[in-house]
Structure formats: C-alpha cells, structure tokens
Amino acid sequence: MTDDDPGTNSNTPSHDLQQAVVAYAQSEKVKSGLIWVCQVSHQVAAMDDAARRHGVSLLRTLAHLVGDEAQLAGKITGDRRWSEIGQKINMALVMIQSGVPQETAFHLTQALTLVTRLGGKAAAALKDKGAF
Fold first, then answer.
1. 78-90 per-position pLDDT tens digit
2. How many structural domains compose the chain?
3. I need a labelling partner for 108 at 20 to 30 A (CA). Which of 2, 6, 8, 49 fits?
4. DSSP state string for the chain
5. Predicted TM-score of the model (pTM)
6. Is there a domain that residue 1 lies in?
7. Is residue 53 part of a domain?
C-alpha cells in the first residue's frame, strides 16, 4: 500500500484529517467531563448522610457517562490509549462506589493528563493540515 492509492490505503490525507477531528472532538468532551466529575466529587465528599448518598449516585452516573465517551473515542479512532484513560476512570468509579469520592481526584487527574496529550496531538495534526 502506498499513500498514492487512496482506494487501498486507510491512511489517506482525508482519513487522517477525519481521525484528527474525531480525536480532538472526543478529547474535548472527555476533558470537560473529567473536570465536572472531579468538581462534583469534591462537593459530594463534603455532604452528609442522605445528601451524600444521592450525590454519590449522581457522581457514579456522570463518571459512567464520561467513561462511555472515552470508550467510544477508542472505538472510533482505534487508538488504544483511550482504553488506558478508561482504566483510570474505572479506578475513580471504584473510589466512588467504595464511598470515598474524595479519592477520585488522583485517578481523574491521570486520565485528564492522558486526554490532554491526545487532544494536543490531534490539534497539532489539524494545524499541520491547515484545519486550524
């Protein structure tokens, strides 16, 4: 396969551009979600009894939604690094379900770092292709 034959190569310039757009868009969604989950986890940790139980339920739902977006990004882009991000989110979910939402920040920050790198690489690719 060569770059000259777009019919036989999935790495055509338009395919690369499409992959970069998808990776960038997903990274922005997941980044925002991770920040939200981290902020909510701090608020839930400060709650008492019934409010805390409801907050943990909401926090679990939000974390699952963000994790689903990371999983979707991995499927769409074929980039295995998204599964590592998913693992970090799953560890945060373990903390949430264990009743210690204040312990999620470590795992969410690791996930946020990985997502930021992926988004930065996608943005650089888009800039190189003149899309930014």
1. 999 999 999 999 9
2. 1
3. 49
4. --TT-TTT-S--HHHHHHHHHHHHHHHHHHHHHHHHHHHHHHHHHT--HHHHHHHHHHHHHHHHHHHHHHHHHHHHH--THHHHHHHHHHHHHHHHHTT-GGGHHHHHHHHHHHHHHHHHHHHHHHHHTT--
5. 0.84
6. no
7. yes
